[in-house]
Amino acid sequence: MPQLHRVVITGLGSITSLGHNVATLWDSLVAGKSGVARITSFETYPCQVGAEVVDFNPEDYMDAKDAKRSDRFTHFAVAATQNAIQDAAFNAKQFDPFRVGVIIGSGIGGVDTIQKQTARFHNMGALRVSPFMIPSLLCNMASGIVAIQYGFKGPNFSTVTACSSSAHTIGEAYNLLRLGKADAIFAGGSEAALVGLSFSGFCMMKAMSTHFNNEPERASRPFDAQRDGFVMGEGAGIVLLETLESALMRKAKIYCEVIGYAANCDAYHITNPDPEGSGLANCLKNLLHESELQSTDVDYINAHGTSTEINDKVETRAIKHAFKENARNIKISSTKSMTGHLLGAVGGIEVIICAKVIETGIIPPTINYENPDPECDLDYVPNKAIRHNVNVAISENLGFGGHNAALMFRKYS
Question: How many CB atoms lie within 10 A of CB 13?
């Protein structure tokens, strides 16, 4: 049995509708500020709101030629990784490049490229399609380009599990580091699906909010009785995970320790979760078992909380099944009420939030919680941030196809 290494988080990087770095993201979340607004970049119907990244220039983070040859989701990934490098004071020269990995997930990948190049194909002919179309649209290309830009030659791949994609990337990075397969891995997710094609697809599924087009900031309302669908966001969330030995050797700031990862599948439906929440409940029970903790040890859960009718009540059931009577003692919030739902990138953002909760002792709220739902009756930290000492936190995500993933973090000591 190989020696298992302790794994810690030492760097955080984000790009969201609430800003281009973790500091502005965190300040906005604590203030209960929504990043949702009316969409201006393309015509929408019937949902007209989203959480768009604005005033973003990829050339601030990468060469202009490389930016032109890659998709927006890759731009976000490169930018968030650069933020994480700076936050961690990470000096690549201190590492063997073959021991530094990159694992960045995406649920949809280069859909903007697909939309634009399909239009060129139909309007201008096959010979006018870009030679960079294929590498631009591939979901793994964010990991590849980040590695190329920074010279990281360790484990490198992408997970594609819809909205649980980046939870899986961070979990797989954790497993590799525990086994000593790398010293440091940049992991998380990136998504740029706020384009007409994918937006229309979600609209036709009747998955997105349509009742708050005139009040966009109220549209994402997880666990509220008047929730009517999710609000799409975009951006990236990247964390730097290191073995504890590596972090201590370079005297890095440690946000928290990763102490567990669990994943499974509902095997129920292509989009809907198991109505009893048995898959997620089992995932959370496995997480507790792996972490060797009791349900009473958990202080905070950053919920998947998408603001859809089915997800929020199923997630509530799952938490009750997994944590029994202690479910009512756990602080729970869905920060998607402010960031929107970043699909494959959301797990990365929400792991960052868990790290900041542990660091600061502040729990951001679930905003727009105005009308209690009898089937969603736990403590969702409604509308205002609270101060609460958090020693153990969980981030959980669900993805189309029945995918469940959960991660557990503990204050480092």
Answer: 27
Name the amino acid, one letter, at 373.
Answer: D
CATH number at residue 210: 3.40.47.10
CA distance 197 to 344: 17
- Same domain for 333 and 282, yes or no, is yes
pLDDT tens readout for residues 42-77: 888 899 999 999 999 999 999 999 999 999 999 999
Q: Which residue in the list 5, 168, 341, 403 is annotated as catalytic?
A: 341
The label of the residue with tokens 């153990």 reads 392
- Examine the domain organization and report whether 344 and 298 are in the same domain: yes
Q: How far is CA 179 from the centre of its chain?
A: 24
| Catalytic member of 256, 304, 354, 376 | 304
Catalytic residue among 47, 139, 163, 256: 163
- The 10 Å Cβ neighbour count of residue 156 is 19
Which residue segment(s) compose the domain that 133 sits in? 8-249
Query: Taking a C-beta distance cutoff of 8 angstroms, is the pair 81, 87 a contact?
Result: no
pLDDT tens by residue, 342-383? 999 999 999 999 999 999 999 999 999 999 999 999 999 999
* 255 in a structural domain: no
- Confirm if 269 and 247 have CB atoms less than 8 A apart: no
Q: Is 256 a catalytic residue?
A: no
* 131 CB-near residues (< 8 Å, 6+ apart): none
Q: Is 321 a catalytic residue?
A: no
For the question of residue 341 being annotated catalytic, the response is yes
Q: Which residue in the block uniquely carries the two structure tokens 């920060």? A: 335
- Which of 198, 225, 249 finishes a domain? 249
